[in-house]
Amino acid sequence: MTVRRDFEEPARCRPDLVIGREEPFTAAREQLDRGGSVLLHGPAGIGKSTVLRALAAEYGATARTVLRCSATESESHLPFLALADLLGLVLEDVSDQLPATQRTALESALTGRGESTLQRDGLALRLAVLSALRALAAAGPVLVVADDLQWLDPASAELLGFAARRLGDTPVQLLCAMRAEDQEYDRQLRSAPPDTLALRLGPLSRTQVSALLDHRGYTGLPRSTVRDIHRTSGGNPLFALELGRALAENPTPPRPGEPLPVPTSLRALVLNRLEMLSDEARHTLLVASAGARPTLALLHAAGRPHAEAETARAAELGLLATEPEGPAVRFAHPLISAALYAEAPAHRRRAAHAALSEAASDPIERARHLALATNGTDPEVATRLAGAAALARDRGAPSMAASLGLLAARHTPPGGVPAPDERRLQAAEDAITAGEVDLARDIAREVLSRATVPADRVRAWMVVIEAAGQALGDVDAVFPQALADAGDDPRLLALVHYQLAWRALVVEGDFAEGREEAAHAAELAARGGDRRTELLALAFQAQAETLMGHPGAPATIRRALQEPQDPQVACHHNGAGSTRLRWLLMSDQLSDARATVTRLLSEARRRGMVESEVHFLRMLAETELRAGHCGRALDLSQESLRLARDSGIGEVASAVLTSVAEASGGDVGRALALAREAAEHAEEDGDQIYMSRALASLGYVQLVAGDAVGTVRSLRRVRELEQGLGVTDPARGRWHGDLAEALVRVGELAEAQDLIDVTREQALRLSRESVLAVLDRAEALVRAARGDQEGAIACLTSVQDRLAKLGYGLEEARAAFALARLRAHAQAPGPVRGGGVARSGTASYDEAARLFRRCRALPWLRQVEAAASPPPAREPVPVPAPATAALDGLASMERQVAALVMEGATNREIAARLFISVKTVEATLTRVYRKLGIRSRVDIVRLAAGPRTG
């Protein structure tokens, strides 16, 4: 098929067409933009055709001629078929330009009216294809699009390869795709130009599979189900979509422990070789598919005496992996195992599980197989399952514990002890721990639909509230119902009031009310003998008091750390250990903080506590960032964000921290996007706590990006929010120095000094040494802007030394940078530059560059490099006395901007020299015009010229 069109601007491909393929898509674009060719390869269903179509649509718009073919296996034996698809419709256009011998051979091959063969007319045919492509390219660029290259008939492949290797600079590009495993694409490269870029498409991540399912309309799937789809599909997008479709069409979801339903289309795709196995071999593979970690020894123990020979035959057929795996039996693709299990009759599945319940060595596995081999209720099976769930919980596998707990509830007879609902609620709490909040919410809702026991109902309400995460406003109606169900039971009331403490903080933004609710919850829990809730409530109270600057915070922390401790609370993200960690960070004890958070993270991982793992990864990243280890902090924050998005827990908090880490050691553009995303989500959730944190991170990123006006806007709002929340400890957000610096840059020196004075008083009261040092750095900038260069330099020298002793590497480097700017200014003639100084080629920025390089603070390092590179020399224009007098009524920043306008500097040059944004320059000039009673920068220049004479 041929497409002709005039040259036009290509339509860039929509991102939703290449979900999870951004890197190979970008690489393909770059190759095509250079005039090269691309070969996409990978296994069936991996998305090659999707990417191929997207690229063809984009680059076909710039080609004069587009030639297409899409081969099939059933037609691959027909000679010249692919060549006919490519050139059949353009033969008339080019035949007159071919020598007679070539024309005859090509027409015979394409039309089938002659007896042309490669053996008889080989050279003529080869030259004819090359000549045809050159003739088409003479009229404009040619794009050859070939899908399923592996099914190209050998004759067409040979001819296309001959021409491709000889095209040279002829504007003909090939865009091809082929099915291949590993490096099997090498043979097909012979059909493409020598410089063809081969790109392998690999499996999608779990997050990408989730996005793909959402895009195709399979929304609302629980995260645990998405996890199973990803595991079963192996990240293959076609398989994932088919599994998603089967789930959407199946009104009955799979029961706990059961694999996903595999649609017939996929069964046929992966099991077409199963018929070549004997019945006994198929049953052996069924037993392997039912096992969690099948081995030859396990299959023997499960009554499969010929397992070696049967699995060897299955490997020959491509059903099992062929590479050496020791004793393990591994399917070539997870979907083969799932399809094999789904294909088997129910009684054969039960028989496989019954055999494995005796053969498995692990008690958890034995209990799971026993449950899946048993129909109906059975108290003995239920008891074994509940014990296995407890063991899984102890091993740090809460997701497995939740699955086993639901199986235990299903096998528990009505009236059993414990009751089925009690076991379901334990499973829901395990699901919360594992980060499977959708599953937990569904279990709790099911229990609430029939439960009458107050303890069960309150426990279920707590799961619903926990599953809401930061969006507590969405479950506001739950609290009155939970209080009503709790009655006057202190244990139940303690649970509700503990959650009310969080509601006060998250929804109302009231630390004082949250502290009171937490204290009340701790008192109720102590009265009811619920030590776990008491410890959590005390930890919350201590955290609130810490952030409020309350004098009772240390005493409350000691109470929360007193014995007896609950092991689960000890490493919980809302436990006393986490509160103490926050206190260590705010008190500048970075070494102790690092040791504490490392221990807490290790324990949370050991116990499988996903939300706590996300939290402590974030806290470790924050600790490393304070210490100036920006690269390490960026890696940790990104890991936290990936896990948060995967589990749906703590996404806003992780995005906030990652934005700061990106701005410090990564990409400022990504940092801005993350900070804005976090602010939007916090606003949607009505979460004032994380709204203030998100805006604080946005303000910092804007400062790094050079947008001082944006920084002021964002951080002024943070100040308002924290005042409303009752936060008085400046070590909580550490945004005060950034706001003061930005205020200096925009010329608001009085506001900057006032902020510094108020914050310094709070920091002195709480002994926040690093905050005091940063405030002194900001005050040095105020002094410099007011003309006290010597005082500013002396102050910054001291600040840099203090920050180095405290271990704040990044802040130390920022102080060195500010000091280098001031020293550069001291060496350069010209007006005072507030908040920064003129760049001077004679000034040394080496120390600041060294410190930023040590921190791997790349965005800051780029600022140093820019500052150290002097702008083109400009002859200074002396400012006459009348002009100087006219500028006396202006603020410091306004005077500096006006003076540079008098020198003839453009707005962009002024922004560069004063380290402010162009928008700030424009806004400052507007104020100058108004104050001087003039209309334009021309009038400022006239001031510089002085009054006219004669």
TrEMBL record:
CDD domains: LuxR_C_like (cd06170). Pfam families: AAA_16, GerE. GO terms for biological process: regulation of DNA-templated transcription. Keywords: ATP-binding, Nucleotide-binding. PROSITE patterns: HTH_LUXR_2 (PS50043). GO terms for cellular component: cytoplasm. Gene3D superfamilies: P-loop containing nucleotide triphosphate hydrolases (3.40.50.300), Tetratricopeptide repeat domain (1.25.40.10), Winged helix-like DNA-binding domain superfamily/Winged helix DNA-binding domain (1.10.10.10). It comes from the Bacteria. The keyword Transferase does not apply. InterPro entries: AAA+_ATPase, AAA_16, P-loop_NTPase, Sig_transdc_resp-reg_C-effctor, TPR-like_helical_dom_sf, Tscrpt_reg_LuxR_C, WH-like_DNA-bd_sf. GO terms for molecular function: adenylate cyclase activity; ATP binding; DNA binding. Residues 883-948 form the HTH luxR-type domain. This is Transcriptional regulator. It comes from Streptomyces glaucescens.
